Amino acid sequence: MAGGLPLHALPAAALRDRIASREVSAEEAARHFLDRIARLDGGIGAFLRVDAEGALRSARASDARLDAGGAPRPLEGVPVAVKDNLNVEGLPTTCASRILEGFVAPRDATAVARLRAAGAVILGKTNLDEFAMGSSTENSAFGPTRNPRDPSRVPGGSSGGSAAAVAAGFAPLALGSDTGGSIRQPAALCGILGLKPTYGRVSRSGLVAFGSSLDQVGPLCRTAADAALALSVIAGRDPMDATSLALEAPAASLAEGGLRGMRVGVVKEHLEGEGLEPAVKAAVEAAVGVLRAGGAEVREVSLPRSGDGIAVYYLVATSEASSNLARFDGVRYGLRVEGRDLAGMYEETRDRGFGTEVKRRILLGTFALSAGYADAYYQRALRVRRLIADDLDRAFREVDVLVGPTAPTVAFPLGEKIEDPLAMYLCDVFAVTANLAGIPAVSVPCGADPAGLPAGFQVMAPALREDAALRAAAAVEAAGLLPAALPGAFA
Fold first, then answer.
1. Which of 90, 95, 169, 370 could form a disulfide with 8 if both were Cys (CB 3.0 to 4.6 A apart)?
2. pLDDT tens digits, residue range 172-196?
């Protein structure tokens, strides 16, 4: 306890301030979260591996630094969870797949290295849908993750382990990756905040690639201020990633500033989308009301090609996945299953190593790229992707941000959609637009259904305008539309 509040209830910035002021030591904070994980994660499954020894070693180093008079760093002593498709030196990287069995990361991903340099304490690696392919964190080879608000339900995906870790109070901050909503959709279902930065804002070096033109690393946390703080640490040019933008990291004050004069566009197609639950729509409309009351100018905006987003995404993403996952062949690292010859070894290794959803997407992508079909599918998808981006460019000439639901539903029961791939894919129907265009987007809680399950409010902004997205998210956050209480031990 610190100042009457349990440490796990504090945002990352507030915890850092208490550690910096020596009200609590970094080691005490680390032990608090490690003990909470040991006590409660058995019923959630957020973590695949907890590195207690490494976390305590880092925490003690922070304490020694502060005790010696060192200036506190941006995340001094703050415990952080890392999605297990990002490398953490000395720990296994599994991508929740059997095919990476035995692989230990030789170095930190750039985003992880920057967290460490800012004083963060890495707690361990979180569960995900295998190779980040899924919307429920049920596709993991090591079992599903459960939603802390209702453990009979999914946490969303693919960054479901990271989202559940923050929602359950196992970490105040976590890293995820977002290829088609994989940060924002689980943030929405778990009732926390998730930010997908502009493509290229954060280095992808050390992130195991799924869709190279879509993937982006970003934070999951409780507040817009924490998201801005995390982005200020992990963003910036990296010579190890040729797609990273030659820009300095943004300031930690990115989320500050009011709404006066902000032009907000409510996406007509998203608010009228098929499958949108009435409770989610009502929650989104309440959040729009908050923005209007805060001084924003609100109008309706149309994105006429947004309905094509899912089809385009599942051609582009699977095509890139087909290429990226070809490297997992049993030769250089990971699982190796002997076969009758070299080709047989490839077949046996990939058959046993990959799960059903990964195989499905590899097959889809390989077909879309195959001779005689690439023009009809992949190349056509790229042309429609450009048209979707053009729609967004036109919309952003009229408004500063675009808003709507993050996901069409609240968290659904475990097993409900696992046998229906199309229903699962449609969980990301509103999220994929931002990935296809490479723009920043944030999900912030905006209310709950009658059962108390959270709904997410998505804010999209033009490229490099994370500040506008986070300012709008901060206003919705401040309105307190989501009941804060978590059940039982997670409160």
1. 169
2. 999 999 999 999 999 999 999 999 9
